[in-house]
Amino acid sequence: MADKSRLSLNTATVNQWSLEECINGCVRHGIAAIDPWRDGLHNLGADVAREMLIDNDIKVSALCRGGMFTGNNTLECEAALDDNRRAVDEAVKINAQCLVLVVGGLPAESKDINDARQQVRDGIGKLLDYSRTCDIPLAIEPLHPMYAADRSCVNTLRQANDICDELGDGVGIAVDAYHVWWDPDLEKEIKRASGRILGFHVCDWLVSTTDLLLDRGMMGDGIIDLPSMRRMVEAAGFDGFIEVEIFSKKNWWQKPGNEVMETMINRFETYV
Amino acid sequence: MADKSRLSLNTATVNQWSLEECINGCVRHGIAAIDPWRDGLHNLGADVAREMLIDNDIKVSALCRGGMFTGNNTLECEAALDDNRRAVDEAVKINAQCLVLVVGGLPAESKDINDARQQVRDGIGKLLDYSRTCDIPLAIEPLHPMYAADRSCVNTLRQANDICDELGDGVGIAVDAYHVWWDPDLEKEIKRASGRILGFHVCDWLVSTTDLLLDRGMMGDGIIDLPSMRRMVEAAGFDGFIEVEIFSKKNWWQKPGNEVMETMINRFETYV
């Protein structure tokens, strides 16, 4: 099973905590790395966060998140690109190992997913011109097809690999177990992603799932074969931090943060 | 746009009605075909249903549904197979053009989706030995990946095409827009399914979707490009009935059935 030293806390897991509380929680519970969300980072201030992270020797496995490249017109797409450049700057500031991209779904009123996918390729291509100069790798995170309309039209590892093949250096993939566990091409496309896997996120798929976004399970409570997927990404050369990212409005977000942290560590050592 | 003469009512769309009410509703609203669910068929009685359908000249585009082939042991799989053979008999009884298969997800306690997929291939293979003798084509319906755990581990048209290639005559595919619209291989795999498309189901994907199972939208209320998909299945040779199948607990199931029928016909002629 996975060693605690490889665990990174994605701050969405303890949504009840501020980023400051998350960093202090990592220190208290002996967690070596963190992946903060940008809203929390803005609240604390990137300079303060940077200092806290350095002082406490907490590594930053990634920054969540850039993306949302799709729009109805050039103006919308340019605004998204500006925001993505700011996200890259923030990633630099806190020494993040990569910037996670949730690429965006269909623009409002659009039914043309092929066009959205082209916009995503173009957007990542443009962002790369900047992110490469800052040495911040971009990590495309394919999202489950149930988010294709409103969050990400990149829904499979194959699509992400295709984009990486097309765009070259500076872009890789974040493999999130929740999004890809069902994929018949899982093993093949993880293997194909060798050398470009920038992140591995874990949680669990609950049966039954009561909410499309906010009902993810703690590792061990669902049906994803996490050890098997961990071995796949490791066989593809990934040896970085493994992030725990759990959106759980009705369950884990209602509990005391310390209880969530303890359970997370225990489950990580048992089920990942 | 699609002609009303091609519309088939999947009875789940007016879940507030019994099968008898559905058949009478089809007569009243000039709907030429129906796809009944088995529970409604059992409630009315297959003999009575047969007579009503013949008397009113309502075609049966399909019977919903067989499948659920996966199990924890031989006993469970055999029980599923027995039930599927009964479903074939019922399809014969009401002159259904095919039997729709929702193939089943992970057996309880299992995390092995590859094994589940093998069980499905085996199960369909065994059912074919019977269904071929009855001249009832089996229509594999790939379900959206969000149902991979609990309803169907066949989640893409490519998987369904692979099974058809492997098993040969007597098995084809039901293309349901709700389940496959997001698929990057949509056009390619529909083309590959030429000659084996046994059904085309429509509804719409709502933004936002509030329930994984029971929040489907009426055609035109969501983001699926239905005319484009209709042209794809037609280019692949499909000229059968187009089923409207809408699970909508909070919206359409709460309205008077006749209102749903009128809206359905109007939207079919405008958005399909």
SSE map:
The structure is a homodimer of 272-residue chains.
Chain A: E1 7-10, H1 19-29, E2 33-35, H2 38-44, H3 46-55, E3 59-60, E4 63-67, H4 74-93, E5 99-102, H5 113-131, E6 138-140, H6 157-167, E7 171-176, H7 177-180, H8 186-192, E8 197-202, H9 226-235, E9 242-244, H10 257-271
Parallel strand pairs in A: 1-2, 1-9, 2-3, 4-5, 5-6, 6-7, 7-8, 8-9
CATH class of chain A: Alpha Beta
Mean pLDDT of chain A: 98
CATH superfamily of chain A: Divalent-metal-dependent TIM barrel enzymes
**Number of discrete domains of chain A:** 1
What is the overall number of helices of chain A? 10
Largest beta-sheet characterization of chain A: 9 strands, parallel
Classify the beta-strand content of chain A into a percent band: 5-15%
Q: What is the CATH architecture descriptor of chain A?
A: Alpha-Beta Barrel
Describe what is shown at a glance:
Chain A is an alpha/beta fold and 272 residues long. Chain A has helices at residues 19-29, 38-44, 46-55, 74-93, 113-131, 157-167, 177-180, 186-192, 226-235, 257-271; strands spanning 7-10, 33-35, 59-60, 63-67, 99-102, 138-140, 171-176, 197-202, 242-244. Chain A contains 10 helices and 9 strands.
Account of the protein in words:
Two copies of one chain form a homodimer. Chain A is of the alpha/beta class and 272 residues long. The first copy, chain A, has one domain: Divalent-metal-dependent TIM barrel enzymes (TIM Barrel, Alpha-Beta Barrel), CATH 3.20.20.150. Helices cover 42% and strands 13% of the residues of chain A. Chain A has ten helices and nine strands. Chain A has helices at 19-29, 38-44, 46-55, 74-93, 113-131, 157-167, 177-180, 186-192, 226-235, 257-271, and strands at 7-10, 33-35, 59-60, 63-67, 99-102, 138-140, 171-176, 197-202, 242-244. In chain A, helix 2 (38-44) crosses helix 3 and helix 4 (74-93) crosses helix 5. The first copy, chain A, is globular. Chain A binds chain B through residues 106, 110-113, 117, 144-146, 148-150, 153, 155-156, 158-159, 181-184, 205, 207-210, 212, 222-225, and chain B through 106, 110-113, 117, 144-146, 148-150, 153, 155-156, 158-159, 181-184, 205, 207-210, 212, 222-225.
